[in-house]
Design brief:
The structure holds three protein chains of three kinds. Chain A has helices spanning about 1-25, 30-35, 35-60, 65-90. Chain A is mainly alpha-helical. Chain A is elongated. The chains are: A mainly alpha, B mainly alpha, C mainly alpha.
């Protein structure tokens, strides 16, 4: 039972990691590429880390929770680095794909 | 069950690493490369944790934590360089 | 009295827990050493933490984190579908959202949440901390997305982080 859950978590995690990288590779412009790694990769690695925490908690009969630390760290830092990279990209006026609605440079509001 | 799942996971994460590496090489701009580097860091954390599961050893966790910290600091420093470096011109 | 010893109680608890998790043990020795560090580090760094943080409704915050966790999983399935599907049909967009939250920590938590949930990444905050620039991977109705974000994430955060 435990092994099945572990195997599922590992496969799901690896799959999402791959999806993040596929997004990084095939999406057309930088701002869209930003979405793949920040979301999919973070969740994928998080799932693998949870699997690892479960594995080492049940295997030798002692609790191993320090994987939680890496998971929390990744979930806090991924949006921060994404924000900074987007800010840097806007600062050097990187081109976005043409069909994007609005541009960040002339700050015309939503609606 | 795990002996089947782990090799599959290794394959998937390796493909992810290869794709990030491709994006790192083809660019085309600096932020793309920073993003690819960041993704490479996170993918390598996944690979290390999988290796720890495969070998049944918790030793690799420390390395994963260090990569996570250094990767974040590196990404922030590179982005800050882009934000600041332009002002000096 | 308690404010003198523990200027930042939340920081103390977080530091203590992370020390125990880093050592991966709950021995009494580590408990004591961690507690000493968790009390002294906020003292030495208190000049960096000038803004007081006080939580009004801890339960609302917990509920908020539960909602966010669930949304992260859903968001990932949505984004995976968008990435693996045809990329030509995606309609990316930039838009500004007017912030009601004024507390700095509230704004940063909101920005982080936006980055982790359905198809949106927060890109920039205006200098007066009033508007947040957001990029969305695929958006059909911008007003609807803004309303969703305001209703789902900003409202609970506004309740929790108020001026104290």
């Amino acid at each position: 039972m435990l092994e099945t859950i572990l195997a599922l978590l590992i496969i799901i995690g690896a799959f999402f990691t791959l999806v993040g990288s596929i997004g990084l590779y095939k999406l057309p412009d930088f701002y869209m590429r930003l979405h793949g790694p920040t979301k999919a990769t973070t969740l994928g690695v998080g799932a693998i880390l949870v699997a690892s925490a479960l594995y080492f908690s049940f295997k030798p009969g002692e609790i191993s929770l320090h994987e939680i630390l890496v998971t929390v760290f990744l979930f806090i830092t991924a949006p921060v680095s994404a924000h900074l990279m987007a800010k840097a990209a806007i600062h050097i006026k990187l081109k976005q794909i043409e069909r994007t609605k609005n541009t960040p440079y002339q700050a015309d509001n939503n609606s | 069950m795990l002996d089947i799942a782990l090799p599959i996971a290794f394959t998937l994460v390796s493909f992810a690493l290869a794709l990030s590496l491709l994006r790192l090489i083809i660019g085309p701009d600096l932020p793309d490369r920073i993003l690819a580097l960041d993704t490479l860091y996170i993918n390598s954390i996944a690979l290390l944790i999988l290796l720890g599961l495969y070998l049944g050893s918790a030793l690799y966790f420390e390395a994963a934590l260090l990569i996570a910290v250094m990767g974040f600091v590196g990404t922030v420093a590179l982005s800050k360089y882009l934000l600041r470096g332009d002002i000096m011109e | 009295m308690i404010n003198k010893i523990l200027p930042h109680p939340i920081l103390t608890v977080v530091l203590w827990i992370s020390w125990l998790l880093l050592n991966n043990s709950f021995d009494p020795g580590h408990m004591v050493l961690g507690l000493i560090l968790a009390i002294f580090i906020p003292w030495f760094t208190s000049s960096f933490w000038q803004e007081k943080v006080c939580l009004k409704n801890p339960l609302t915050l917990l509920k908020f984190f539960g909602v966010v966790m669930w949304d992260i999983v859903i968001a990932n399935i949505t984004v995976a579908k968008l990435i693996l599907g045809k990329n030509d049909k995606l309609q990316p967009a930039f838009f500004y959202i007017d912030l009601d939250v004024e507390h700095r920590l509230g704004i940063s938590i909101l920005a982080n949440t936006i980055s982790l949930t359905p198809g949106t990444v927060s890109c920039d905050l205006t200098a007066d901390r009033k508007r947040l620039l957001i990029h969305a991977l695929h958006v059909e109705d911008i007003d609807q997305t803004i309303a969703d974000i305001k209703q789902r994430y900003e409202k609970p955060l506004k309740e929790v982080f108020t001026k104290c």
